[in-house]
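Collaborator request log, item 7. Partner lab (contact: R.S.) asked for a structural prediction of Histidine--tRNA ligase to inform their binding assays.
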Amino acid sequence: MSDKDSQPLSGKDLARKPRGFPDKREGLIHAQADLVGKVTAIYRQWGFEALDTGAFEYADALGKFLPDDDRPNAGVFSLQDDDEQWMALRYDLTAPLARFVAEAGQSLGKPFRRYAAGPVWRNEKPGPGRFREFWQCDADTVGAPGFHADAEMIAMGAEALRAVGMETGEFVIRVNTRRLLNGVLDGVGASSAETRLAILRALDKLDRLGSSGVADLLGKGRMDDSGDFTKGAGLGADEVKTVLAFAEAGAKTRAETLANLSKATGSTEEGKAGLAELEAIALALDALGAPEGDVVIDPSVVRGLEYYTGPVYEAELLREVTGDDGKTYRIGSIGGGGRYDDLVARFTGETVPATGFSIGISRLASALQIMGETGKLDGPVVVLNLDKENPSTALSIAADLRRAGIRAEAYMGGSGMRPQMKYADRRNAPAVVIVGEDEVAKGTVTIKDLEMGALKAKAIKSNEEYREARPGQIEVPRAEMVEAIRRIVEAQA
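Returned to partner:
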């Protein structure tokens, strides 16, 4: 495309927006707000307090996301302050917490238990279900070294997912620990960072490629269907069997999985320490009443293990949905967390134990919308304006309804009655109020229950019968209007 083709036509600006920054309409906005309310209610019930650290942080506080000091814009959106210091929109809600804890120092009592909800921004390539701006809802405990703190995060995360409507079998939180995997890597002689990373990447593909495909990636490598070859980790046959035995040790219960892992992790010190971590978490999960189906120990969880220092957990939606293409698929990951004891140390030089759980609110809202779980929001009662010269009657009726606590609006366009009715339908109005010359003369209003009218209309076979029956339509004195409308709105709710 030439420079000329890319210019706005006729001097007008192009109506366009950056990719990855979705526009949200009322249904999704309310679904998202409802999720935040339900999740944070669980966090507060468990004793966590709210904290808002603001959208911007100094770019160097975001640590590993900075590529260089000259232009820190890879992974984050950044700008220079008036004192020439780089600031960046927060990449997540955890790095700002670490900065807050470091700044507060000894004045902040520990353990410090906080929750936060808000948008985060990532300067990454957007794609289906992958946005540059999205909402997260986190809870973190800073200053608690025991693994019962991790178990609390996991059990609370499961309870939060149940609070937003997830049932048994529709979600799972998978738990693993970095130390257990380190023990396996040590046991198979994976000493170099390159080999260890290749093993992690191979295990991360277990769900998609299966045992055979991952075995190839753990060994010499694998050629995919397109003919592209991926170099493997270079493990021998026995080492591949050891790693796969570890990754596939999951069983029906947490106790059975732990027994399988005890056999698969060998006798390394790291392996023993990791197994002890998971045993402590499993014991605490039992005490917290976390159902076996909600939380499983799954050694195949490897995402984020470069970041976390101990246990790691991932929340996944299991319910299958049918897309527009007719294919059935799973939504997948909608949250997770883990232990990150080294994060505050970036600022203070001292290790501060910390663990947290994050739910991807935007991703969860989109998932629920796809699954048809967000529901249809009722719009306002619409008061038709049949007197274009003097809309006072319509305006005063709408005001009366609002004073009674009923959401209402007077029609503000210049169209006739039929387009006004279509407008009310588009607004998902529960009812319309009609006041023409006859109603004004009699001191009445006509109310049309749009939901009841639509249901009754299905049984009517002719236009003549429809006009005579006027389904869902009643006429009441103006003084009785508010209560009549209220009954309709409450019945539909």
